[in-house]
Description:
Number of strands: 19
Distance between the termini: 63 Å
Largest sheet: 5 strands, mixed
Oligomer: single chain
Low-confidence stretches: 89-95, 238-247, 405-410
Radius of gyration: 23 Å
Number of helices: 8
Amino acid sequence: MNKGIILIDADDTSITVTWSEIGKPSSSQPTKYTLQYRPATSATDNGIDSGGQLTYQSLSSELTTNTARKRNLTGAGHGFFFRVSATTKSQNRVDKSAMDYMGHAHRRPFTVLTMMEQSQRMPPPVAKIDSSVASPQPNSYVAHVSWQASAEPLLVGYKLQMRESNGTSSWSTVANCLSGTEVRKKNLTSSSGYMFRVRPVLQGETGGSEENLVASVNEGGNVIPYSSASDVVGARSSSKSSSSSSSGSEGLLRLFKRLPDNKLLAKGGMKSVSLSEAFNKVDLVFFYASAHWCGPCRRFTPQLIKFYNDAKAMYAKAPGRTTKIEVVFLSADHDVNGFRSYYASMPWLAVPFDADTREILLSWMKVKGIPQLMCLDGRTGKVYETNGVGRALDLARFSRYIGRDKSSIR
Protein backbone atom coordinates (compact mmCIF):
# COMPACT_ATOMS: atom_id res chain seq x y z
CA MET A 1 0.00 0.00 0.00
CA ASN A 2 1.22 3.50 -0.85
CA LYS A 3 0.31 6.90 0.52
CA GLY A 4 0.86 9.44 -2.20
CA ILE A 5 0.29 9.86 -5.91
CA ILE A 6 0.70 6.69 -7.99
CA LEU A 7 1.15 6.30 -11.74
CA ILE A 8 -1.59 4.27 -13.44
CA ASP A 9 -0.78 4.85 -17.10
CA ALA A 10 1.11 7.08 -19.52
CA ASP A 11 1.31 7.41 -23.28
CA ASP A 12 3.22 9.86 -25.49
CA THR A 13 1.04 12.86 -24.53
CA SER A 14 -0.74 12.07 -21.25
CA ILE A 15 -0.32 10.71 -17.72
CA THR A 16 -3.01 9.10 -15.53
CA VAL A 17 -2.54 9.20 -11.77
CA THR A 18 -4.36 8.18 -8.61
CA TRP A 19 -3.91 8.88 -4.90
CA SER A 20 -5.13 7.77 -1.50
CA GLU A 21 -8.30 9.44 -0.21
CA ILE A 22 -7.87 12.62 1.79
CA GLY A 23 -10.24 13.34 4.66
CA LYS A 24 -13.45 11.48 5.36
CA PRO A 25 -15.84 11.89 2.40
CA SER A 26 -19.54 11.17 2.74
CA SER A 27 -22.17 10.37 0.14
CA SER A 28 -23.83 13.72 0.77
CA GLN A 29 -20.59 15.73 0.67
CA PRO A 30 -17.78 13.97 -1.21
CA THR A 31 -14.26 15.34 -0.98
CA LYS A 32 -13.21 17.61 -3.81
CA TYR A 33 -9.56 17.59 -4.81
CA THR A 34 -7.20 20.22 -6.17
CA LEU A 35 -4.63 18.64 -8.52
CA GLN A 36 -1.56 20.46 -9.84
CA TYR A 37 1.51 19.56 -11.86
CA ARG A 38 4.88 20.93 -12.99
CA PRO A 39 7.74 19.76 -15.21
CA ALA A 40 10.73 18.32 -13.37
CA THR A 41 13.56 20.88 -13.39
CA SER A 42 16.47 18.45 -13.77
CA ALA A 43 17.48 14.81 -13.65
CA THR A 44 18.10 15.17 -9.88
CA ASP A 45 14.74 16.84 -9.07
CA ASN A 46 13.09 14.68 -6.39
CA GLY A 47 9.85 16.61 -6.13
CA ILE A 48 10.61 18.24 -2.78
CA ASP A 49 9.64 21.91 -2.73
CA SER A 50 10.03 22.89 0.92
CA GLY A 51 10.41 26.57 0.10
CA GLY A 52 7.37 26.73 -2.15
CA GLN A 53 9.40 28.34 -4.92
CA LEU A 54 8.52 26.02 -7.80
CA THR A 55 5.55 26.94 -9.98
CA TYR A 56 2.74 24.42 -10.31
CA GLN A 57 -0.11 24.67 -12.79
CA SER A 58 -3.61 23.80 -11.61
CA LEU A 59 -5.46 21.05 -13.47
CA SER A 60 -8.67 21.27 -11.45
CA SER A 61 -9.95 22.23 -8.02
CA GLU A 62 -13.22 20.33 -8.38
CA LEU A 63 -12.22 16.69 -8.84
CA THR A 64 -14.61 14.37 -7.01
CA THR A 65 -12.64 11.16 -7.62
CA ASN A 66 -9.07 10.29 -6.70
CA THR A 67 -8.03 9.53 -10.28
CA ALA A 68 -7.21 12.02 -13.04
CA ARG A 69 -5.59 12.15 -16.45
CA LYS A 70 -3.47 15.07 -17.68
CA ARG A 71 -3.40 15.37 -21.45
CA ASN A 72 -1.29 17.41 -23.87
CA LEU A 73 1.97 16.84 -22.00
CA THR A 74 4.97 17.69 -24.17
CA GLY A 75 8.42 19.18 -23.90
CA ALA A 76 9.55 17.96 -20.46
CA GLY A 77 12.52 15.64 -20.89
CA HIS A 78 12.83 15.01 -17.16
CA GLY A 79 9.18 14.14 -16.55
CA PHE A 80 6.43 15.68 -14.42
CA PHE A 81 5.55 16.00 -10.76
CA PHE A 82 1.98 16.12 -9.47
CA ARG A 83 0.57 17.17 -6.12
CA VAL A 84 -2.94 17.03 -4.68
CA SER A 85 -4.89 18.39 -1.72
CA ALA A 86 -8.45 18.55 -0.50
CA THR A 87 -10.28 21.58 -1.85
CA THR A 88 -11.92 23.71 0.84
CA LYS A 89 -13.82 27.00 0.81
CA SER A 90 -11.16 28.69 2.90
CA GLN A 91 -8.16 27.41 0.94
CA ASN A 92 -7.49 27.36 -2.76
CA ARG A 93 -4.48 26.82 -4.97
CA VAL A 94 -3.26 30.40 -4.44
CA ASP A 95 -3.06 30.55 -0.67
CA LYS A 96 -2.08 26.96 0.12
CA SER A 97 1.50 26.22 1.09
CA ALA A 98 3.51 23.32 -0.30
CA MET A 99 2.99 21.49 2.99
CA ASP A 100 -0.76 21.25 2.34
CA TYR A 101 -0.24 18.99 -0.68
CA MET A 102 0.36 15.27 -1.08
CA GLY A 103 3.17 14.45 -3.50
CA HIS A 104 4.37 11.31 -5.25
CA ALA A 105 4.47 8.06 -3.31
CA HIS A 106 7.99 7.63 -4.73
CA ARG A 107 10.19 10.68 -5.21
CA ARG A 108 10.54 10.27 -8.96
CA PRO A 109 8.87 12.25 -11.76
CA PHE A 110 6.37 10.49 -14.02
CA THR A 111 7.46 10.27 -17.66
CA VAL A 112 5.55 10.05 -20.92
CA LEU A 113 6.53 7.67 -23.70
CA THR A 114 8.25 8.58 -26.94
CA MET A 115 6.20 8.29 -30.13
CA MET A 116 8.20 5.19 -31.04
CA GLU A 117 7.52 3.56 -27.67
CA GLN A 118 3.82 4.38 -27.96
CA SER A 119 3.64 2.76 -31.40
CA GLN A 120 5.09 -0.48 -29.98
CA ARG A 121 2.48 -0.95 -27.25
CA MET A 122 -0.05 -3.75 -27.40
CA PRO A 123 -3.79 -2.94 -27.21
CA PRO A 124 -5.17 -3.14 -23.66
CA PRO A 125 -6.34 -6.58 -22.54
CA VAL A 126 -10.00 -7.44 -22.07
CA ALA A 127 -11.00 -8.49 -18.55
CA LYS A 128 -14.35 -10.03 -17.62
CA ILE A 129 -15.83 -11.87 -14.66
CA ASP A 130 -15.83 -15.61 -15.38
CA SER A 131 -18.85 -17.04 -13.56
CA SER A 132 -18.31 -20.47 -15.12
CA VAL A 133 -15.30 -21.14 -12.89
CA ALA A 134 -15.52 -21.43 -9.12
CA SER A 135 -12.92 -19.48 -7.17
CA PRO A 136 -11.27 -21.59 -4.42
CA GLN A 137 -11.41 -18.82 -1.83
CA PRO A 138 -14.82 -18.02 -0.26
CA ASN A 139 -16.42 -14.71 -1.28
CA SER A 140 -14.02 -14.30 -4.18
CA TYR A 141 -14.36 -14.25 -7.96
CA VAL A 142 -12.46 -15.17 -11.09
CA ALA A 143 -11.42 -12.80 -13.88
CA HIS A 144 -10.85 -13.99 -17.44
CA VAL A 145 -8.18 -11.83 -19.06
CA SER A 146 -7.36 -12.03 -22.77
CA TRP A 147 -5.32 -9.99 -25.25
CA GLN A 148 -4.42 -9.82 -28.91
CA ALA A 149 -1.42 -11.81 -30.08
CA SER A 150 1.71 -9.76 -30.71
CA ALA A 151 3.30 -9.78 -34.15
CA GLU A 152 6.82 -9.18 -32.79
CA PRO A 153 9.21 -11.57 -34.60
CA LEU A 154 11.30 -12.25 -31.48
CA LEU A 155 8.27 -12.96 -29.26
CA VAL A 156 8.87 -15.37 -26.38
CA GLY A 157 5.69 -14.77 -24.37
CA TYR A 158 3.71 -12.15 -22.46
CA LYS A 159 4.20 -10.45 -19.10
CA LEU A 160 0.96 -9.69 -17.29
CA GLN A 161 0.41 -7.26 -14.42
CA MET A 162 -2.59 -6.24 -12.33
CA ARG A 163 -3.53 -3.65 -9.74
CA GLU A 164 -6.44 -3.15 -7.39
CA SER A 165 -8.51 -0.18 -8.55
CA ASN A 166 -7.98 2.08 -5.55
CA GLY A 167 -5.72 4.98 -4.63
CA THR A 168 -3.06 2.98 -2.78
CA SER A 169 -2.23 -0.10 -4.87
CA SER A 170 0.66 -0.24 -7.32
CA TRP A 171 1.02 -2.62 -10.26
CA SER A 172 2.16 -6.16 -9.43
CA THR A 173 3.23 -9.00 -11.71
CA VAL A 174 0.84 -11.90 -12.29
CA ALA A 175 3.14 -13.86 -14.60
CA ASN A 176 6.55 -13.11 -16.13
CA CYS A 177 6.20 -15.10 -19.34
CA LEU A 178 2.86 -16.55 -20.44
CA SER A 179 2.85 -18.56 -23.65
CA GLY A 180 -0.84 -18.02 -24.49
CA THR A 181 -3.09 -15.00 -24.93
CA GLU A 182 -5.51 -15.59 -22.07
CA VAL A 183 -5.47 -16.40 -18.39
CA ARG A 184 -7.87 -16.79 -15.48
CA LYS A 185 -7.02 -14.97 -12.26
CA LYS A 186 -8.67 -16.58 -9.24
CA ASN A 187 -9.24 -15.53 -5.62
CA LEU A 188 -10.04 -11.89 -6.39
CA THR A 189 -11.80 -10.25 -3.46
CA SER A 190 -11.67 -6.47 -3.79
CA SER A 191 -14.96 -4.60 -4.10
CA SER A 192 -13.02 -1.87 -5.94
CA GLY A 193 -12.21 -4.28 -8.75
CA TYR A 194 -8.98 -4.84 -10.67
CA MET A 195 -7.33 -3.70 -13.89
CA PHE A 196 -4.77 -5.56 -16.00
CA ARG A 197 -2.03 -4.67 -18.49
CA VAL A 198 0.28 -6.72 -20.69
CA ARG A 199 3.46 -6.46 -22.74
CA PRO A 200 5.33 -8.80 -25.09
CA VAL A 201 8.45 -10.54 -23.79
CA LEU A 202 11.10 -10.64 -26.50
CA GLN A 203 14.23 -12.69 -26.98
CA GLY A 204 17.32 -10.70 -25.95
CA GLU A 205 15.64 -8.23 -23.59
CA THR A 206 18.20 -6.29 -21.53
CA GLY A 207 18.32 -3.29 -19.23
CA GLY A 208 14.78 -3.46 -17.86
CA SER A 209 13.76 -3.31 -14.22
CA GLU A 210 10.39 -3.31 -12.46
CA GLU A 211 11.76 -0.59 -10.18
CA ASN A 212 11.30 1.84 -13.07
CA LEU A 213 7.54 1.21 -13.12
CA VAL A 214 6.91 3.62 -10.23
CA ALA A 215 7.62 6.44 -12.72
CA SER A 216 6.92 4.96 -16.15
CA VAL A 217 5.00 2.24 -17.99
CA ASN A 218 8.33 1.11 -19.41
CA GLU A 219 10.79 -1.06 -17.49
CA GLY A 220 13.61 0.51 -19.49
CA GLY A 221 16.38 -0.85 -21.68
CA ASN A 222 15.13 -2.40 -24.89
CA VAL A 223 11.90 -3.62 -23.26
CA ILE A 224 8.59 -2.73 -24.94
CA PRO A 225 6.25 -0.70 -22.66
CA TYR A 226 3.13 -2.15 -21.10
CA SER A 227 -0.23 -1.68 -22.74
CA SER A 228 -2.82 0.68 -21.36
CA ALA A 229 -4.93 -0.76 -18.56
CA SER A 230 -8.01 -2.85 -19.16
CA ASP A 231 -11.39 -1.67 -17.96
CA VAL A 232 -11.92 -2.32 -14.26
CA VAL A 233 -13.42 -5.74 -13.61
CA GLY A 234 -15.11 -6.91 -10.41
CA ALA A 235 -16.09 -3.53 -8.98
CA ARG A 236 -19.24 -3.95 -6.94
CA SER A 237 -22.05 -1.58 -7.76
CA SER A 238 -23.18 0.89 -5.16
CA SER A 239 -26.82 0.96 -4.11
CA LYS A 240 -27.34 4.02 -6.27
CA SER A 241 -25.90 2.52 -9.39
CA SER A 242 -27.74 -0.75 -8.89
CA SER A 243 -31.01 1.09 -8.44
CA SER A 244 -30.48 2.79 -11.77
CA SER A 245 -31.43 -0.42 -13.55
CA SER A 246 -34.97 0.05 -12.37
CA SER A 247 -35.22 3.25 -14.39
CA GLY A 248 -35.22 1.23 -17.61
CA SER A 249 -32.23 3.12 -19.03
CA GLU A 250 -29.65 0.31 -18.94
CA GLY A 251 -28.78 0.64 -22.63
CA LEU A 252 -28.17 4.36 -22.38
CA LEU A 253 -26.25 4.12 -19.10
CA ARG A 254 -23.74 1.72 -20.62
CA LEU A 255 -22.47 4.60 -22.77
CA PHE A 256 -21.21 6.42 -19.68
CA LYS A 257 -18.30 4.11 -19.02
CA ARG A 258 -15.74 5.40 -16.50
CA LEU A 259 -17.90 8.32 -15.43
CA PRO A 260 -16.60 9.36 -11.96
CA ASP A 261 -19.09 8.42 -9.24
CA ASN A 262 -21.70 7.82 -12.00
CA LYS A 263 -22.61 11.50 -11.75
CA LEU A 264 -23.14 14.29 -14.28
CA LEU A 265 -22.84 18.01 -13.69
CA ALA A 266 -26.02 20.12 -13.55
CA LYS A 267 -27.08 23.77 -13.25
CA GLY A 268 -24.00 25.10 -15.02
CA GLY A 269 -21.68 23.12 -12.77
CA MET A 270 -23.23 24.21 -9.47
CA LYS A 271 -24.39 20.68 -8.55
CA SER A 272 -24.20 17.07 -9.69
CA VAL A 273 -26.81 14.36 -10.28
CA SER A 274 -26.62 10.59 -10.51
CA LEU A 275 -27.16 8.91 -13.87
CA SER A 276 -30.28 7.18 -12.59
CA GLU A 277 -31.77 10.50 -11.51
CA ALA A 278 -30.68 12.32 -14.65
CA PHE A 279 -32.36 9.92 -17.07
CA ASN A 280 -35.34 8.76 -15.02
CA LYS A 281 -38.30 8.38 -17.42
CA VAL A 282 -36.47 10.40 -20.11
CA ASP A 283 -37.72 9.62 -23.61
CA LEU A 284 -34.99 11.25 -25.69
CA VAL A 285 -31.42 12.24 -24.86
CA PHE A 286 -29.30 14.65 -26.91
CA PHE A 287 -25.49 14.60 -26.81
CA TYR A 288 -24.27 18.12 -27.58
CA ALA A 289 -20.64 18.44 -28.74
CA SER A 290 -19.65 22.09 -28.66
CA ALA A 291 -16.97 24.57 -27.51
CA HIS A 292 -16.81 28.21 -26.46
CA TRP A 293 -14.17 29.08 -29.08
CA CYS A 294 -16.42 27.87 -31.94
CA GLY A 295 -18.44 30.65 -33.59
CA PRO A 296 -21.12 28.37 -35.10
CA CYS A 297 -21.49 26.74 -31.66
CA ARG A 298 -22.09 30.08 -29.95
CA ARG A 299 -24.78 30.86 -32.54
CA PHE A 300 -26.46 27.46 -32.21
CA THR A 301 -26.42 27.19 -28.40
CA PRO A 302 -29.11 29.87 -27.81
CA GLN A 303 -31.40 28.05 -30.24
CA LEU A 304 -30.84 24.79 -28.37
CA ILE A 305 -31.45 26.52 -25.03
CA LYS A 306 -34.84 27.77 -26.25
CA PHE A 307 -35.77 24.32 -27.58
CA TYR A 308 -34.71 22.72 -24.28
CA ASN A 309 -36.56 25.20 -22.05
CA ASP A 310 -39.72 25.01 -24.18
CA ALA A 311 -39.69 21.20 -24.08
CA LYS A 312 -39.15 21.19 -20.30
CA ALA A 313 -42.01 23.65 -19.81
CA MET A 314 -44.35 21.54 -21.94
CA TYR A 315 -43.47 18.41 -19.98
CA ALA A 316 -44.01 20.20 -16.67
CA LYS A 317 -47.56 21.13 -17.75
CA ALA A 318 -48.53 17.68 -19.02
CA PRO A 319 -45.98 14.99 -18.12
CA GLY A 320 -48.20 12.15 -19.27
CA ARG A 321 -48.73 13.55 -22.75
CA THR A 322 -45.41 15.20 -23.60
CA THR A 323 -42.00 13.88 -24.59
CA LYS A 324 -39.43 14.18 -21.83
CA ILE A 325 -35.98 15.16 -23.08
CA GLU A 326 -32.53 15.74 -21.65
CA VAL A 327 -29.35 17.26 -23.12
CA VAL A 328 -25.80 16.29 -22.14
CA PHE A 329 -22.98 18.70 -22.99
CA LEU A 330 -19.72 17.14 -24.21
CA SER A 331 -17.14 19.88 -24.25
CA ALA A 332 -14.62 20.17 -27.05
CA ASP A 333 -12.91 23.06 -25.27
CA HIS A 334 -9.15 23.09 -24.94
CA ASP A 335 -9.04 23.71 -21.19
CA VAL A 336 -11.20 23.52 -18.09
CA ASN A 337 -11.60 27.30 -17.82
CA GLY A 338 -13.13 27.47 -21.29
CA PHE A 339 -15.45 24.63 -20.36
CA ARG A 340 -16.58 26.30 -17.14
CA SER A 341 -17.32 29.70 -18.65
CA TYR A 342 -19.27 28.16 -21.54
CA TYR A 343 -21.20 25.60 -19.50
CA ALA A 344 -22.23 28.26 -16.95
CA SER A 345 -24.69 29.59 -19.56
CA MET A 346 -26.31 26.19 -20.21
CA PRO A 347 -29.41 24.78 -18.43
CA TRP A 348 -28.73 21.08 -19.08
CA LEU A 349 -26.35 18.37 -17.90
CA ALA A 350 -22.66 17.92 -18.71
CA VAL A 351 -19.94 15.29 -18.46
CA PRO A 352 -17.14 16.69 -16.25
CA PHE A 353 -14.30 18.09 -18.33
CA ASP A 354 -11.69 15.98 -16.52
CA ALA A 355 -13.56 12.70 -17.00
CA ASP A 356 -12.29 10.19 -19.57
CA THR A 357 -15.97 9.61 -20.37
CA ARG A 358 -16.08 12.94 -22.21
CA GLU A 359 -13.42 11.94 -24.73
CA ILE A 360 -14.78 8.39 -24.95
CA LEU A 361 -18.20 9.73 -25.95
CA LEU A 362 -16.78 12.31 -28.37
CA SER A 363 -14.86 9.50 -30.06
CA TRP A 364 -17.92 7.23 -30.03
CA MET A 365 -19.93 10.00 -31.71
CA LYS A 366 -17.21 10.26 -34.39
CA VAL A 367 -17.14 14.02 -33.99
CA LYS A 368 -15.41 15.60 -36.97
CA GLY A 369 -16.86 19.08 -36.63
CA ILE A 370 -18.83 21.08 -34.11
CA PRO A 371 -21.52 21.82 -33.18
CA GLN A 372 -22.94 18.31 -33.32
CA LEU A 373 -26.26 17.27 -31.75
CA MET A 374 -26.88 13.53 -31.55
CA CYS A 375 -30.38 12.26 -30.68
CA LEU A 376 -30.70 8.95 -28.79
CA ASP A 377 -33.41 6.85 -27.23
CA GLY A 378 -33.53 7.66 -23.53
CA ARG A 379 -33.83 4.00 -22.56
CA THR A 380 -31.95 1.87 -25.07
CA GLY A 381 -29.35 4.39 -26.22
CA LYS A 382 -30.29 3.73 -29.86
CA VAL A 383 -29.07 6.55 -32.12
CA TYR A 384 -31.88 8.23 -34.08
CA GLU A 385 -29.89 11.15 -35.54
CA THR A 386 -26.13 11.55 -35.62
CA ASN A 387 -26.41 15.33 -36.05
CA GLY A 388 -29.50 17.48 -35.80
CA VAL A 389 -27.64 20.75 -36.35
CA GLY A 390 -28.96 22.41 -39.49
CA ARG A 391 -32.39 20.80 -39.13
CA ALA A 392 -35.42 22.19 -37.33
CA LEU A 393 -35.36 21.81 -33.57
CA ASP A 394 -38.89 20.46 -33.61
CA LEU A 395 -40.05 18.31 -30.69
CA ALA A 396 -42.78 16.76 -32.84
CA ARG A 397 -40.18 15.54 -35.34
CA PHE A 398 -37.97 14.06 -32.64
CA SER A 399 -40.96 12.47 -30.87
CA ARG A 400 -41.83 10.46 -33.94
CA TYR A 401 -38.61 8.46 -33.43
CA ILE A 402 -40.07 6.85 -30.35
CA GLY A 403 -43.28 5.91 -32.13
CA ARG A 404 -45.59 8.60 -30.81
CA ASP A 405 -46.11 12.31 -31.24
CA LYS A 406 -46.47 13.62 -27.72
CA SER A 407 -45.06 17.05 -28.52
CA SER A 408 -48.25 19.05 -28.24
CA ILE A 409 -50.72 19.53 -25.41
CA ARG A 410 -54.29 18.94 -26.45
